[in-house]
Design goal:
GO terms for molecular function: histidinol-phosphate transaminase activity. The protein has 348 residues and is α/β, with parallel strands linked by helices. It has two domains: 248 residues, Type I PLP-dependent aspartate aminotransferase-like (Major domain) (Aspartate Aminotransferase, domain 2); 89 residues, Aspartate Aminotransferase, domain 1. It contains 13 helices and eleven strands. It has a seven-stranded mixed beta sheet with strand order 1-7-6-5-4-2-3, sandwiched between helices. It has a four-stranded antiparallel beta sheet with strand order 8-9-11-10, covered by helices on one side. Strand 4, helix 8 and strand 5 form a beta-alpha-beta unit. The longest helix has 22 residues. The radius of gyration is 22 Å and the shape is globular.
């Protein structure tokens, strides 16, 4: 049975987190002489001379209003990548423990495993890009701490079968991390709704995709209060800067704009699928719940290089396991998609 104390690293259990000036005093005052900041201000139109809120309270409050999850169940990080790294550092003993990844999938899970000296056991997805539950069960041992599942998956674009994920959550004694970076474009509902059912569930989301804030680096993790407490203990004290917090808060008030962009993205995704099918070098286009499509071609390298020569950059995924001959194409604006399609008409 899952118990956080059975998978948490001993040094993290005993860790005394850094106590910042903003942790020790969080109220209102007229004179702050506690944090060795520059009291004169910033050489900018906005003032950034004060350290940001280490726990991003105002931002979490707004996220709560949108997601329906209490602030105590939310971690905000410097992109979702920080949350991934913190999970490794909190739960995986270097050189001892292992995690399971299910390629083809987001490459940062493997990179974080390598950085933290943690074995990443690969269990390939099936031919239709779903979980191989039997293979995962065989790969798990007493040192398996985390299972990473990207849904909708990158680079394949499809959502992972919900019942299969729930099977893992119900039977695995470690953490199951469901990375929902592309959930805003999906027909599948978020796993955030299952947080009260599964104590070992961690859901990752981001403001980089549908919300259009990739340059601000703001990611979120949703989990039980005890998991969030661990992540807050391990993170750097001021991990999300003040500019990102302020701008993210402002962006989160523009839901109507985001919903409009999502709707247009889905329309353009359907358009790309429909028109790309007409090219004889396109062998298959895989179903997508994301803001990109995976296209199997006769010669991915040649097509990729041709588009680069025309100033159009897509992603060549032909060397990725189970994605041989494939190109990943992000859904662009109507004009960008027109340029892509017109350029491909001249490909020989």
């Amino acid at each position: 049975m899952y118990n956080i104390n059975n998978i948490l690293r001993e040094n993290i259990k005993n860790l005394t987190p850094y106590s910042s000036a903003r942790d020790e005093y969080q109220g209102e005052a007229s004179v702050f002489l506690d944090a060795n900041e520059n009291a004169f201000g910033s050489p900018l139109n906005q003032q950034f001379n004060r350290y940001p809120d280490p726990l991003q309270y105002q931002l979490k409050k707004r996220i709560t209003e949108i997601k329906g999850v209490p602030p105590r169940n939310i971690f905000v990080g410097n992109g979702s990548d920080e949350a991934i790294d913190i999970l490794f550092r909190s739960f995986c003993n270097p050189g001892v423990d292992n995690v399971i990844i299910v390629p083809p999938t987001y490459g940062m899970y493997q990179v974080s495993a390598n950085i933290n000296d943690v074995e990443a056991r690969k269990v390939l997805l099936t031919e239709d890009y779903q979980l191989n539950l039997e293979g995962i069960a065989e790969a798990i041992d007493e040192h398996t701490k985390l299972i990473f599942i990207c849904s909708p998956n990158n680079p394949t674009g499809n959502s992972i079968n919900r019942a299969d994920v729930e099977t893992l959550l119900a039977n695995f004694n470690g953490l199951v991390i469901v990375d929902e970076a592309y959930i805003n474009f999906s027909r599948q509902k978020t796993f955030i709704q299952e947080l009260t059912e599964y104590a070992n569930l961690v859901v990752l989301q981001t403001l980089s995709k549908a919300w259009g804030l990739a340059g601000l680096r703001v990611g979120m993790a949703f989990a039980s209060e005890e998991i969030i407490e661990v992540m807050n203990k391990v993170k750097p004290p001021y991990n999300v800067n003040e500019a990102s917090q302020q701008l993210a808060l402002e962006a989160l008030s523009n839901i109507d704009q985001i919903n409009s962009w999502i709707k247009e993205t889905l329309t353009q995704r359907d358009r790309l699928v429909l028109e790309l099918k007409n090219f004889d070098f396109v062998l298959d286009i895989y179903p997508s719940d994301a803001n990109f499509i995976l296209v199997k071609t006769t010669d991915a390298n040649k097509i990729y290089n041709y588009l680069v020569s025309k100033g159009i950059i897509i992603r060549n995924r032909s060397k990725v396991e189970l994605c041989e001959g494939c190109l990943r194409i992000t859904v662009g604006t109507p004009d960008e998609n027109t340029t892509l399609l017109q350029t491909l008409q001249n490909f020989k």
